[in-house]
UniProtKB/TrEMBL annotation:
Places the protein is found: Cytoplasm
UniProt name for this protein: Phenylalanine--tRNA ligase alpha subunit
PROSITE patterns the UniProt entry points to: AA_TRNA_LIGASE_II
GO molecular function, one term: catalytic activity, acting on a protein
Catalytic activity of the protein: tRNA(Phe) + L-phenylalanine + ATP = L-phenylalanyl-tRNA(Phe) + AMP + diphosphate + H(+)
Listed cofactors: Mg(2+)
Gene name of this polypeptide: pheS
Quaternary assembly: Tetramer of two alpha and two beta subunits.
Amino acid sequence: MEQQLKELQNQALEQIAAAANLKELNDVRVAYLGKKGPVTEVLKGMGKLSAEERPKMGALVNVVRETISESIEEKQELLEAAAIEQKLAQESIDVTLPGRPVKQGGHHPLTRVAEEIEDLFIGMGYTVAEGPEVEQDFYNFEALNLPKDHPARDMQDTFYITPELLMRTHTSPVQVRTMQKHEGRGPVKIICPGKVYRRDSDDATHSHQFAQIEGLVVGENIRMSDLKGTLDMFAKKMFGEDREIRLRPSFFPFTEPSVEVDVSCMCGGKGCSICKGTGWIEVLGAGMVHPNVLEMAGFDSNKYTGFAFGMGQERIAMLKYGIDDIRHFYTNDLRFLKQFSVHE
């Protein structure tokens, strides 16, 4: 048995030395030191030896097992070090190579317009207010002087989730929520940017999802002249100091009186394809806040008045940058987006 153990040890050491990778080395370990390995089998046969032979053979088996184990550990360290060296060689970096250029993107045109408008109105003392896109019917319609049976609801083809829950059709609900928070005490001076949704067929000038920015001012002695002055400054800052505005009578359920606001075309009134020969371009709707809206939000309409306005971001961006199709904003075409350089 002593000779058998020495032969096992020599065979194991030879196979350990020949192992080319960690898997082969582990196979050797299992083959010789595993539960069914020859060294374990020798230990199982120790009970058949005499009392005098048993201590001697036990010590020899332990020496063989430890010798094989130590040899495996040494070989494992060598193979692991070699594997690391090989990996480092494969992943080496030539620091003398020129660096890859980092491409800089630019702000999306809608983001640029929104930020520009927000900066303009914040500079005029407004604060930015936001609200949920999934809105209650009360805030989207009823609190804005649009009761359940009001025919003007048909002007905004709505995505309803339940009879009382919908995707907001404008950002005006944010105005109502903000006024309620003020609990009938003015002044209120906010702009409300955000996404809105309407059941509309997508084409060059319409989309079922678009962005709006609305404004609201409520206080004592707020007049139509305040609204006109505010919008005149907005037009000059957004489109150029030489631009003028005009107000045309219109109708909105939540304002009285209501107006459509046009800005003079860049053609200088001569007439072009953009203004369709009129010299004017419609940009937004506005008006004095309806007394019913003020009352429903908790304000005394005998003490407080206000004005509101609303514009589509896409509409402003199309006019500002000369974009002829609203779908360009949503198709993620890099040829389109690259025109808006980060340095502009």
